[in-house]
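Table 4 source record.
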Amino acid sequence: MLRKTLPLFGSCLILLFHIPFDAQAQNPAQNPAQIPAPTPAPATSQIRTAPPTAAMIPVLPAPNSANDLSYRIGPGDELDIRVFGRPELARIARVDSYGRIRLPFLEEIPAACLTEAQLAAVIAEKYKKYLRDPQVDVLVKDFRSQPVAVIGAVAQPGRFQLQRRVRLLELITFAGGPNTHAGNTILVIHNAEHDHCSSNLAKEQSKPEGKSAPGAEAKDGAAGDAILPTLSSIKLKELLNGSPDANPFVQPGDIISVPEADQIFVTGSVIKPGAYSMLTRLTLTQAVALAGGVNMEAARSRVRLIRQEPGTDERKETVYNLDDIHRRKIQDIALLPNDIIEVPNSTMKVASRNMLGVSINMLSALPYFIIR
């Protein structure tokens, strides 16, 4: 019995001596500086990110800048606002004259000069007080805040409502293009009353530093400094040739005027008498050529140029010989607007033609006989 107990007792002692060393080998002393930082757990699809805030709204280029191609909401526009899963909050809201809209449970929200996406983000941020992660959609249903007009020598003058940014050449194309009486100049009259984004920016830049007195903003809005219209001139030829400098963006409230060209008048013994537009510089012989040239009875040596003196009611008449101009004996005369060119009949040529006509009539009246 003793022999069986001693080997068993020895085995237990050996195990007792080995256990501490094994534990020490499995858990060695570690220096805190050498302990690697724990790796973060990989993100799973169940982890929800924070909802976007107002600071996360995408920043677009400044209104009316060269890179801004988006439509900016303005007073008078009608907006269709919907909240996903909340049909009771859907509204058709019209932007008031101060650029604000009203929605249920919310205060007045400034909407002017914002895009559809920007306004949707602002409304969603305000609805977070009552809803969890609201999804808002804004759509401009009726465009009323950006009117422009095209008048003058175009095929279809009229008033247009901008639904996006449009350049001058495209707008004139919508008006049918210039007609045959259009001059070589286009006038762009810019009225900043309808350009709310630019006018508000100008007011902010003109304000002195520091806080304004209470009620000053309302006073400025009611009777602020009037912004005078500005006038710019663009060459029609450069615009049609595709010059980038001659094709600016049209701003809200602009009036595009295409004046008719100055005219000269050709009368008398010409093929096509009438009024002709001075699209370019014209001379006396060129005006006669536009009228189809002189006819057979014209007195080429007595062409009269009737010109009204600037600033007076007096008219000055000058006689020119077309043959002398063609032979370069005298210089061709440059015409001015409203000049009248009269090509008289030659008395000798008229009398000769009349006599020839009478002779032909007399000969036709004589009897004739057939000799067989």
